[in-house]
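Posted in: Structural Biology > Protein-Ligand Complexes

Title: Requesting predicted complex, zinc ion in pocket

I'd be grateful if someone could produce the 3D structure tokens for the following input. Sequence and ligand are given below.
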Amino acid sequence: MPSILAYQSSEVDWCESNFLYSPLVAEFYNTFSNVTFLIFGPLMAFLMHSYVQKRSRYIYCIMALFVCIGFFSMYFHATLSFLGQLLDEVAILWMLASSYSIWMPRCYFPTFLRGSRSQFTCMILSGTTIVTFLSVLRPTINAYALNSIALHVVYMVRLEYKKTRSRQLRHMIGVSVVLWASALASWISDRLFCSFWQQIHFFYLHSIWHLLISFTFPYGFVTMALVDAKYEMPSQTLRVHYWPRDTWPVGLPYIEVQADDKSC
Ligand SMILES: CCCCCCCC/C=C\CCCCCCCC(=O)N[C@@H](CO)[C@H](O)/C=C/CCCCCCCCCCCCC
Ligand SMILES: [Ca+2]
Ligand SMILES: [Zn+2]
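-- Reply #1 --
Done. Output follows.
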């Protein structure tokens, strides 16, 4: 039985040809396209400082897990090892679990929890611990299961889109969903139509997924922060800005909590 650390011990092999540029790196573009994860995680932690201070410092865990995903995904594509695949998938699972625990609006909690966020968090974290152990049983279905969690997030933000009249929130939801849908289309296309892409020598769809899904992160993050703030921080005014400049045609969104001018 091959070691779980061995090169190509994973059952999954992406469309990009292996070992084209180096005997150490199995999929070159798929490995290095993860660099945006390593940049956006710390950058968002810096930009969202005022929001995190007001809401919860646990939000830094989401950013830290996002950076872990970047490292594990690089390791996975460089080696195509079973361990790399599991680390990548388990980090995604825990990042989604932390996001659910912190941001899921109480109105979507199961009724028996009666709106208790601490009980909801216990339920999500115990479920995630069990699923983490189960994930070794059928590793090939893990990625599909993770993508179906995204469908639930999209369903929930669609309900919030219908409820809100805020143009700022509607714009964020629109951009996040378009980015996520384009990312998912690239992921599925790389998985299902690889023989076609190989015929035309275009092996980059999974790298494009990495880039698009890493840009979805700041937009999805700001979307969830705005949705959550409507319920949990109703007295605060949140403003969306773009890094590096609000006036540039493209940029990364972030939130600034406006200072309370109220003094006695
Ligand atoms: C109430 C919860 C709100 C959660 C919002 C969180 C927004 C998170 C945005 C992005 C997460 C990025 C995770 C990307 C992982 C990339 C690593 C990777 O490529 N792994 C592959 C192997 O290399 C693996 O096959 C991929 C598996 C599927 C990953 C599924 C990710 C789900 C992303 C959920 C995005 C929801 C966006 C909703 C927008 C409104
Ligand atoms: Ca490959
Ligand atoms: Zn990948």
